[in-house]
Amino acid sequence: MRLLITGGAGFVGSNLVRVVLREVPNADVRVIDDFSTGLERNLAGIEAEIVRGSILDDWALTRAMAGRDAVVHLAALPSVPRSVADPVSSHAANATGTVNVLEAARRADVSHVVVASSSSVYGANPALPKNELTWTRPLSPYAASKLATEAYALAYQASYGLPTLAFRFFNIYGPGQRHDHAYAAVIPRFVHAVLTGEPVVVHGDGLQTRDFTYVETVCQVLLDAVTRSVCHDQPVNLAFGTRTDLRTVLAELEQITGRRIDPEFLPPRSGDVRHSQAENTCLRQLFPDVANTPVADGLRATVEWFQEWLSGPESRAARHLSTVQRAGERPYRVTTTQ
């Protein structure tokens, strides 16, 4: 397997790199990342080639795409609030960037491309659970850009015969997820705050629900997709139909950590949806062997990772993704593009 992972230094990308190297003997993994949101420490101690560059840079992307059999396209500017503050950057990275990746893959005769969309595309559609064939109505520039991501992937499949698969991610969480920026996801923010004694901030009343999906499970599906070159002519929800409100997440964290949590409730954020839950019939048909990870188990593994990460800065990189078996200790190779 000669695989390119765009955004491979990010949360999902770096987890995927390790899962592939752990489970596929002699896998040749290359990453392209500009490290605008991903971290170099996420790739410490692995054997993968890194092209330091942006998917908006044609030269860097062409260099990264050369000789690849398959691509998992994860590079993006995440976060609804970030896109509300800066919609043009979100569009450039997520929509234009996807077109660039698909064009580069087409030029390089890549045989399979998997792209990451988002449950946020459902937006104002109140139906639960969310079915892939129901209407979409994005409520934020981020959601609109991810709808463009999946639409372009499916259009390239129809127009050029490029085999693609577009996943709609739902609230992925787990070891290695960043808490330390303004647009951090809710679970790493909660876990870090609880463990460090900082205020636990909830935007809204805490009764909003999400279909939380554990990152290891997501990576197993992504690996299976590229291994079997799975394609589909519609987007596919990558979640399991669970519906957990934020107050329940906090209650689970109290049980796991043994610490009392008194959240501070703030007004809801612009662009956030109230409820999210996936219909997963299509996922089960395409990936019948996939097994969900219960939220309580995923939260426990996430807390354990944060506890180890917080135990000392000198050990953070070495302990990255402690719930995932390390694939190797050799340094990664870095190709710098200018």
Can you summarize this structure?
This protein is of the alpha/beta class and 338 residues long. The chain contains 10 helices and 14 strands.
Q: How do the helices and strands line up, and which of them pair or pack?
A:
Layout: E1 2-6, H1 11-23, E2 28-33, E3 49-52, H2 58-65, E4 70-73, H3 80-85, H4 87-107, E5 112-118, H5 141-160, E6 164-169, E7 172-173, H6 186-196, E8 201-203, E9 209-210, E10 213-214, H7 215-228, E11 236-238, E12 244-245, H8 246-257, E13 264-266, H9 281-286, H10 295-310, E14 333-336
Parallel strand pairs: 1-2, 1-4, 2-3, 3-14, 4-5, 5-6, 6-11, 7-10, 8-13
Antiparallel strand pairs: 9-12
- The neighbouring-strand order within the major sheet is 11-6-5-4-1-2-3-14
Provide the low-confidence segments as ranges: 314-338
pLDDT averaged residue by residue = 91
CATH superfamily: NAD(P)-binding Rossmann-like Domain
Taking Cα atoms only, what radius of gyration do you get, to the nearest Å? 19 Å
For the record, the CATH architecture stands as 3-Layer(aba) Sandwich
Query: Terminal Cα separation, in Å?
Result: 28 Å
Shape: globular
Supply the helix-strand structural class.
Answer: alpha/beta
Number of strands: 14
Strand content: 15-25%
Broad CATH class: Alpha Beta
Biggest sheet overview = 8 strands, parallel
Helix content: 25-40%
CATH topology heading:
Rossmann fold
Overall tally of domains = 1
The helix count comes to 10
Order of helices and strands: EHEEHEHHEHEEHEEEHEEHEHHE
